[in-house]
Amino acid sequence: ECCRQEEVPVQNSGGRGIMDDWPGYDLNLFTYPQHYYGDLEYVLIPHGIIVDRIERLAKDIMKDIGYSDIMVLCVLKGGYKFCADLVEHLKNISRNSDRFVSMKVDFIRLKSYRNDQSMGEMQIIGGDDLSTLAGKDVVGTGRTMKALLSNIEKYKPNMVKVASLLVKRTPRSDGFRPDYAGFEIPNLFVVGYALDYNEYFRDLNHICVINEHGKEKYRV
């Protein structure tokens, strides 16, 4: 079966949760930038599985809110690849449907990590005037949306939905769940697919677990 693709083992979370004891994929099975050799433990989610999952999220979003124009609010920097791929799939669905859905994209940056530790306080950097969200259907994408939601709501958008590629199982979780989630993962610090460690690893296509050598090498 040359075209068979092995699925990431999951536990009971809607068929998308990666088990705590999942050992991941051996790095030797994949290509990745040579400058990260020795800095990673294993591949948690290969790029192909990420892309397939995002396509399904796009279909779910269009099924739910594809009857109206959409404003996509992308959380930079970690959310840019997820947002770009999601928007492309949304546009493809719109192009092949009997009703055109207008989509606009805006950007905001949140900074919450220094090295591999959350700083607690959320820094909001950049972004245009959020008053443009008034009366719009908003799909927010990124890792850390709760800090933005109360700020967005005061501009009275018609609807707000949150899409996140990853949901981490962690004791520090405040219980917030996005409306659309790609994968639920163990409490691991992951990099790749635009997720960084002090600005490194954004050029890694797969989502991987960084090792202690990598953390020390790129620590600030």
From TrEMBL:
Domain of life of the source: Eukaryota
Gene3D superfamilies named in the record: 3.40.50.2020
Coarse class of the protein's main subcellular location: cytoplasm
Phosphoribosyltransferase domain location: 48-197
E.C. code: 2.4.2.8
PANTHER family: HYPOXANTHINE-GUANINE PHOSPHORIBOSYLTRANSFERASE, PHOSPHORIBOSYLTRANSFERASE DOMAIN-CONTAINING PROTEIN 1
Protein name: Hypoxanthine phosphoribosyltransferase
